[in-house]
Amino acid sequence: MSPAEEAALRQSDRNGWLLVLPALIVLALAAILPLLVMLVYSFLTPGDFGNVEWQFSWDGWVSILFQRDIFDGTLGLADAHLTIFWRSIWLSVVTTALAFVVGFPTAWFIATRPPAQRPIWLFLVTIPFWTNLLIRTFAILEVIRSEGLINTALIKTGMISEPIQMLYTDGAVLAGMAYVYLPLMVLPLYAAIDRFDMRMLEAAYDLYASRWLALRRVILPIVSPGIVAGSILVFVPSLGAYVTPRVLGGGKNMMIGNFIELQFGQGRNWPLGASLSMTLLVIVTVALLFYVRAANRGTQTHG
Amino acid sequence: MAERFAVNRLPGFTTIAILAFLALYIPIITLVFFSFNAGKTVMDFNGFSLQWYAVAWNNTAVQEAAWRSVVIAFWATVIATTVATMAALGTTRRRAFKGQTAVYVAINQPLMVPEIVTAVALLIVFAWVKVQTGYQGLGYLILAHAAFCIPFAYLPIRARLEGLDLSLETAAADLYATPWRTFRRVTLPLLAPGIVAGAMLAFITSLDDVVITEFVKSAGQDTLPTYMLGQLRRGVTPEVNAISTLLLGLTVVILTAFFLLTRERR
Predict the structure, then answer these.
(1) B59-262, CATH topology level
(2) Interface contact A24-B255, CB threshold 8 A
(3) Contact A281 B113 (CB under 8 A)
């Protein structure tokens, strides 16, 4: 490489950096630095009326799992916290499973339509995806509340006389999350199935595979990067969900997101809220690293 | 002759898929339908009426929240689209510079971090800044919205840039156009559909935000979504359904325009 070319490339690098700089400044101010500040706050002492005292303390982190006995000061497991973590995790896992069971056939259906029809079906999945999460949660609310669609239909047809209480249960949160996050499962699954070579399936049937065996031994392993991608894309927002459990779960059926909010409101324990947020962030980051690996594998096998 | 064996048909899949599409749309249609209900709940459908739209329209709290939503979304879109366009120009069509991966991670960060985490982190920082500066205005919300709108603006612009034909710019340079003139007269017009598409996504994203706004806003700074969330304490009112329907309509219109704009020409 001649010195002139090298200088031109260096100039090009410099221009590249200058062009991304404004975006980085905005992101640093309102997305990245705040996380670092929050990390600092997780090691401080809660103030009497919210906010913090500038005094170092491990309590924010310790009280994620433990609580100090008010009489003898010994540490015991904080059962209420564990219940919330456990509920968040199992609700997110079941939401993911539910979204897969419904989303896989849906993605398969779209991918096996004639090519001209596929964009229309995809568009039908995309509209709910882009529709305000709050509106979709309200929509579910209209369906399941006591004066809602299901109860009205059941009462009008005489199957029940009193409305069934569906709202403010774990089931309501589950149905709501599966509903709002379903498009996040369908879209990556569709992308994976779309690349799937149907001749593989012909080969399987030629070798006397049953449909079930072909699904289990041929289709699922080949589209597995799409399955991993879709599952993580559903699991991650479910775990951090705030709006859906607040609207459909009410005050009792809290998830981690609502528990974090509580610490900044009535709980007046900002350090605990900060440490909980950092914990959630770490879990989500680990899940996303798996996602990146799955996504890379997906492009390699079909590259 | 026996029915042809359809290789890609799996038993039950079509049924589940149709049910899934119904499940996706029935709640939304219910919501839209009952925003036109003369009665108060799904229980009593008293015929078609626009009264809940009138109620929403005449509610000053709704008017103010709607206006605030639009102002925030507008400025957030302008900022996010401008910096995202520059970032897209900086990260495409040149050799990858050192640290480019870190730049990608930073740009996509708002897509990866749970909203509630960003929301409380911003609450902490802005609470401090508010005390230090005494400034309570919409600037905090605009800055926060601009940041999480960046990836939504960046992705379509970058996609458009990657599909552009470099030779057009080379031709312009050969005809003695200055780099700036080339950019303004050749690159920018070709890039315009990508920029408009990115701006649309940024606008919808800002307009729809609940969580971050809920934590960052000062007293009396409700946007439409946070106003709706606040109304929930009084139970669902058809008024909220009416506002939802209008927002939904706006989303569908913008999305349709987005798809027409980014559709590949065959």
Answers:
(1) MetI-like fold (1.10.3720)
(2) no
(3) yes
One-letter amino acid of A269: N
The most confident of the ranges A103-107, A221-225, A296-300 is A103-107
Render B145-205 in DSSP notation, one character per residue: HHHHHHHHHHHHHHHHHHTS-HHHHHHHHHTT--HHHHIIIIIHHHHHHHHHHHHHHHHHH
CA B210 to chain centre: 12
pLDDT band, very low/low/confident/very high, at B44 (cuts 50, 70, 90): low
DSSP structure string for A26-54? HHIIIIIHHHHHHHHHTTSEEPBTBSEES
Q: Per-residue pLDDT tens for B47-93?
A: 788 888 988 889 999 999 999 999 999 999 999 999 999 999 998 87
* A-to-B residue pairs, Cβ atoms closer than 8 angstroms: 268
Look at the block and give the residue holding tokens 């399941």: A144
Q: Is the ipTM of this complex over 0.95?
A: no
Question: Domain range spanning residue A71?
Answer: 64-301
- Report yes or no: B56 and B239 within 8 Å, Cβ to Cβ: yes
pLDDT for A30 equals 94
Confidence of residue A300 (pLDDT cuts 50, 70, 90): low
Cβ separation A103–B20 shorter than 8 A: yes
> Has residue A49 been placed in a domain?
no
Distance CA B198, CA A263 (A): 36
Counting beta carbons within 10 angstroms of the beta carbon of residue B104, is it exposed (0 to 12), middle (13 to 18) or buried (19 or more)?
middle
